[in-house]
Amino acid sequence: KRAKMAEKDKIKWNNKYKELPKLLEKRDPCEKLVKFIEKASKGKALDVACGSGRNTIFMANNGFEVDALDISSVALENLSKLNNPNINTLLVDLDEYSFEDE
Predict the structure, then answer these.
(1) If 0-12 CB within 10 Å is exposed, 13-18 middle and 19+ buried, where does residue 58 land?
(2) 37 pLDDT band (50/70/90 cuts)?
(3) What DSSP character marks residue 30?
(4) Under 8 Å CB-to-CB from 29, ≥6 apart: which residues?
(5) For residues 82 and 55, is the Cβ–Cβ distance under 8 A?
(6) Are 26 and 78 a contacting pair, CB within 8 Å?
(7) Secondary structure (3-state) at 18
(8) What is the dihedral sign for C-alpha 82, 83, 85, 88?
(9) How many angstroms separate the CA atoms of 91 and 94, rounded?
(10) Is 95 exposed, middle or buried (0-12, 13-18, 19+ CB in 10 A)?
């Protein structure tokens, strides 16, 4: 049952990004992230369900190595086109993904 739900989510989000490409355009990061990023120690960061990557891009441009996770291959392909060496995209089903060894 979970696999079916994940496949439905993948299809839903891929279709949404294809039908509304404006969602993949550059957008401002979350206000709280902007406010507090300077207080965070530089290093690795994780953006779960990153979507178009607005927060991923911001963190990467501020010296973080970011693992950007999402179920949408369309969103991740768009993010990968930036060729930012600080961004690592991972296509995952968050219902099944294990963070234990990361």
Answers:
(1) buried
(2) very high
(3) P
(4) 54, 55, 57, 58, 59
(5) no
(6) no
(7) helix
(8) positive
(9) 9
(10) exposed
CB crowding 14-40: b at 16 or more within 10 Å, else e: beebeeeeebbeeeebeeebeeebeee
Q: What is the mean pLDDT of residues 41-59?
A: 95
Nearest-angstrom CA–CA distance, 51 and 78: 10
In whole angstroms, give the CA distance from residue 24 to residue 54: 9
Confidence of residue 93 (pLDDT cuts 50, 70, 90): confident
Q: Could you report the per-residue pLDDT of 58-88, keeping only the tens digit for each?
A: 999 999 999 999 999 999 999 999 999 999 9
Residue appearing with tokens 């190595």: 65
